[in-house]
Design the sequence.
């Protein structure tokens, strides 16, 4: 928990009220994938995958496993049903760590020779299979997988608060192979999956899809048979086993027209546990209704959504059944958001992880905005932007060479993949200036890549096509580029003309020398009214001029935090002070100024005839009008390129 506490401490300094809120009181909704410092000691080598993994296409996985709640020991078999996509297949390859012992491998029910080395297995065929042929591989194995750290493929823990043992899996990004034979390729989603889990009869075992049956077995064992018919990425297959109680609630999204959707929850069967978490669990109903309104259908509505409580410090968005360590507002919203962004549409490669994490983090913001409301959306954005700008550099995009086993912290960088990813989505919403189009973009993205994978260029294409705008420059700056803009502003209003001088510096000039961007300015007028105008920065130094008659009291740059930026200064330009009195006057006119350069005083009749013209430099000037006839005169003060005129009465 140290990393989370550190982040929270930084943000706490900015807004103490945040700590008092029922919303966003922690940063668990990162999915807790920032616990990577534990992971590093566990695995540290380059990603090595045989090209043979791409010679076949996964159709179906069947995991038939024996597990318990107090050990990571695992045994059983996994059946893989696949189709040959290479010209021919003479070697079947899959991934499984060397710590697990493979007993035998059957191909189409015939035992085959194999080699298990460097966490990969190669099964050799006597007769190659031709392109298009279907085949079945069945792998029998057992053993104690490696464990330790958040990113361990399988973990076990004793929860001293609730006095329960629990064992769970977490395969993202590369660790499915730590507990089952698998092809860890994101673009090859299985069409369907069965997960059968045999355990002690005191336990319940949760997993993906629907619970097909619970089968009593000899020796006080029971088998939980979970089945899912939706396409699924390898890392979203999971289980959790403990002495659970089941708490079910039902959501009724509007699009189901009265039908209900099961929200199935496995919570420790301990006194007080359910009552402790119930309020947080029940908020799932609000989030489900909101997200289905915004994104339309829940992608897995023929099955369920749910949670398995486990010992991880955060959550992991396993398809249809999140593994979760607690039920804060933010983490429950974030993990449900993943069902659309990450599960239905999965990042095509780990370089584009923001398609999972940036979007899911933004669903947390949407829940904060639409459900929590009040001060909380602004608090959310304030803390997000402040956190992003704690460091000057960093790209949301993860270069392929940085996607390594020992660099998981780069993939799941909370500041970049999560928070900056979410903030640029919010900025896209601002650029569009139309929420109908913005949410249409998200729905079209879901529809175009449903049950599949997508890259950032895929999202840009959907965004451009739906909006009719070109976001190429936007992504070059904000996604592939690094850093953020740093602004200094100065403004003034004279004679109904408003001028805003804008100077943009950047935090990473060698990478992104300029952010061409829109930013809003809020005007507060002396009559109590206000208005917002949007300005477009296209170069580092700009002066914006607009006619604006109402007298301005003050302005604010983007007070609702639509765009990422740091404002170093905002000041009103020093204005000339000119006082002319008394008025009316009988004989003497006093002109008081704060001008530091010489100025001219001209006095004219209403017909334009000049009766006085002289230059002065002192702050107080006295002019004798006793020699002039009574009447109305114009007094003009000229300095540089500006002037002011005032009527006076001489009696």
Sequence:
């Amino acid at each position: 928990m140290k990393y989370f506490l550190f982040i929270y401490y930084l943000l706490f300094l900015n807004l103490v009220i945040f700590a008092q809120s029922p919303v966003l009181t922690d940063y668990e909704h990162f999915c807790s994938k920032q616990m990577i410092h534990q992971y590093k000691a566990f695995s540290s080598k380059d990603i090595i995958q045989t090209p043979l993994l791409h010679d076949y296409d996964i159709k179906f996985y069947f995991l038939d496993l024996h597990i318990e709640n107090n050990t990571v020991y695992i045994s059983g078999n996994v059946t893989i049903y696949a189709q040959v996509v290479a010209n021919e297949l003479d070697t079947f390859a899959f991934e499984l760590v060397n710590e697990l012992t493979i007993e035998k491998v059957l191909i189409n029910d015939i035992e085959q020779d194999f080699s298990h080395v460097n966490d990969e297995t190669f099964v050799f065929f006597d007769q190659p299979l031709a392109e298009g042929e279907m085949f079945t591989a069945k792998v029998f194995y057992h053993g104690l997988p490696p464990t330790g750290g958040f990113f361990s493929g399988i973990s076990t823990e004793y929860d001293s608060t609730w006095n329960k043992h629990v064992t769970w899996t977490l395969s993202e990004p590369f660790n499915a192979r730590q507990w089952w034979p698998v092809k860890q390729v994101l673009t090859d989603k299985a069409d369907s999956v069965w997960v059968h889990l045999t355990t002690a009869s005191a336990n319940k075992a949760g997993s993906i899809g629907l619970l097909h049956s619970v089968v009593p077995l000899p020796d006080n064992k029971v088998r939980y048979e979970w089945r899912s018919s939706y396409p699924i990425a390898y890392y979203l297959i999971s289980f959790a086993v403990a002495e659970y109680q089941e708490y079910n609630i039902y959501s009724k999204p509007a699009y189901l027209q009265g039908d209900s959707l099961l929200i199935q929850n496995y919570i420790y069967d301990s006194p007080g546990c359910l009552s402790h978490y119930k309020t947080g669990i029940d908020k799932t109903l609000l989030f489900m209704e909101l997200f289905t309104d915004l994104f339309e259908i829940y992608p897995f509505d023929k099955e369920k959504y749910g949670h398995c409580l486990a010992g991880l410090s955060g959550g992991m968005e396993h398809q249809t059944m999140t593994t979760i360590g607690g039920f804060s507002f933010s983490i429950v919203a974030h993990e449900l958001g993943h069902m659309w962004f990450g599960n239905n549409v999965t990042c095509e490669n780990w370089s584009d992880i923001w398609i999972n994490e940036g979007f899911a983090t933004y669903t947390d913001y949407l829940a904060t905005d639409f459900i929590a409301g009040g001060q909380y959306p602004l608090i959310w954005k304030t803390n997000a932007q402040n956190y992003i700008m704690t460091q000057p550099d960093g790209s949301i995009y993860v270069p392929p060479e940085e996607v390594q086993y020992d660099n998981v912290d780069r993939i799941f960088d909370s500041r970049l993949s999560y928070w900056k990813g979410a903030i640029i989505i919010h900025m896209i919403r601002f650029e569009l200036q139309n929420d109908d189009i913005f949410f249409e973009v998200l729905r079209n993205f879901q529809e175009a890549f449903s049950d599949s994978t997508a890259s950032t260029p895929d999202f840009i294409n959907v965004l451009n096509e739906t909006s009719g705008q070109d976001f190429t420059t936007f992504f070059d700056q904000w996604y592939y580029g690094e850093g953020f803009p740093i602004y200094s502003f100065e403004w003034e209003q004279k004679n109904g003309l408003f001028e805003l001088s804008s100077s943009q510096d950047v935090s990473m000039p060698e990478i992104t020398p300029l952010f061409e961007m829109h930013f809003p300015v809020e005007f507060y007028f002396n009559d109590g009214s206000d208005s917002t105008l949007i300005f477009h920065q296209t170069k580092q130094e700009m002066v914006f001029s607009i006619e604006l008659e109402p007298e301005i009291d003050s302005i604010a740059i983007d007070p609702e935090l639509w765009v990422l930026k740091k404002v170093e200064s905002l000041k009103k330009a020093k204005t000339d002070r000119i006082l002319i009195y008394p008025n009316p006057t009988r004989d003497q006119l006093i002109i008081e100024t704060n001008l530091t350069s010489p100025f001219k005083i001209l006095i004219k009749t209403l017909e334009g005839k000049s009766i006085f013209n002289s230059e002065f430099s002192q702050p107080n000037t006295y002019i004798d009008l006793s020699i002039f006839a009574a009447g109305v005169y114009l007094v003009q003060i000229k300095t540089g390129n500006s002037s002011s005129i005032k009527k006076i009465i001489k009696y």
User: Anything to note?
Assistant: The domain at 578-650 is CATH 2.60.40.3080 (Immunoglobulin-like).
